[in-house]
Every structure is written in structure tokens, then in C-alpha cells.
Amino acid sequence: MASNPERRAALVDAGVEVLAREGARGLTFRAVDTEAGVPVGTASNYFTDRDDLLRQIDARVHVRLAPDPEVMADLLKGPRDRSLVTAFMHDLMARATRDRTGYLALLEMRLEATRRPGLLASYTKSVRGDLEYGMEFHRDAGLPGGDETVTVLYLAMLGLILEHLTLPGVLDGVLPGVSVPEGLVERIAATVVPEG
């Protein structure tokens, strides 16, 4: 296995692009090599097989979509109330929108995990870890609501992000006077997060 970390990162990012654009069936080492602009056969020197590449894509996309620590620290200066949770949800939506390709790759990973038992186990662990981290963060930050609030927010935001990134017209005008996605983020938080 080749060990150039910059080349590996470039190949993984190329894999994210291919996965988001072509789906899992289009994710071949040759397609990754082409996307990365490297000689054919390069990806096969960095990944043992497609499952290895998919696991590394999973890890990379979670890093790409992770919140900026400075943004989080700045937001945490505010009162621990519904408006702060709403600000976190706006940040989540902004990150998913900014890195649409990364988020679409995650959606493709979900679908591919239903077909690959090894990937299903690792991807489930990864996503469950994100959910548990969100619950722990919510508790430690002293935000209103508990684990149920975080779980319902997770489900609502997942649905909103899915629709916004894949079929944005579905939500346009569904609630008159409510903008998409910003206004819907506000409505989700107002509906799910308790006042105090």
C-alpha cells in the first residue's frame, strides 16, 4: 500500500466526487484515478478494495461536513435556549449546502450500505456515532430538551437536507410564506425544541 497522505486524500476526495455524481456503481478505481487526474492504477495502490475506499470516503466526508470549531465556539457564547439550537441547525444546513457533493456522497453511502453487509456495519457505526455525539453535545452544552429532542431534530433535519439537496422543488411553497430551507429550519426548531 502506498503511503503518500496528500495523494491518498486527493484520491478519497476524488472518490467523493465520483460517488456523488455516478453513484456506487460508477465508483471504480479507474473513475477515481480519472477524477483525481492521476495515472490509471494509482487508486489500486492506495486502497485494498472498493469497501476500503468506501470506508475512507465515509471518514473523509464526515470530516468535510464537520462543524467549524470557531463557529461552534462563537455560537456557544449565546444563551442556552431554542434560538441557539436553531442557530446550530442553520449551521448544519449551511454546511450540507456548501458541500452538496459531500452530502450526496453520504446519501449514496446509505444506499450502498443496504447492499454490502460489511459497509452496513461500519456505516451504521459511523452515523450512530454522529447521533450519539449530538446527544452528548446537547446535554453537555445545557441546551433545552434531551435525547428525544436531538433524535427528532436529527430525523427532521435529515429529511429537510435530503429534499433540499435532491428535489428542492418539493418543498417550495409547501408552507406559504415560509422560505426553503431557512424558514423550514426555523419551523423545525420551533416545533421540536422546548422553550426553556
Automatic annotation (TrEMBL):
Domain HTH tetR-type: 5-65
Pfam families, per database record: TetR_C_31, TetR_N
InterPro entries in the record: Homeodomain-like_sf, HTH_TetR, TetR_C_31
Superkingdom of origin organism: Bacteria
First and last residue of the signal peptide: none
Keyword entries, A-Z: DNA-binding
Residues of the DNA-binding region: 28-47
PROSITE patterns: HTH_TETR_2
Designated name of the protein: TetR/AcrR family transcriptional regulator
Organism: Streptomyces plumbiresistens
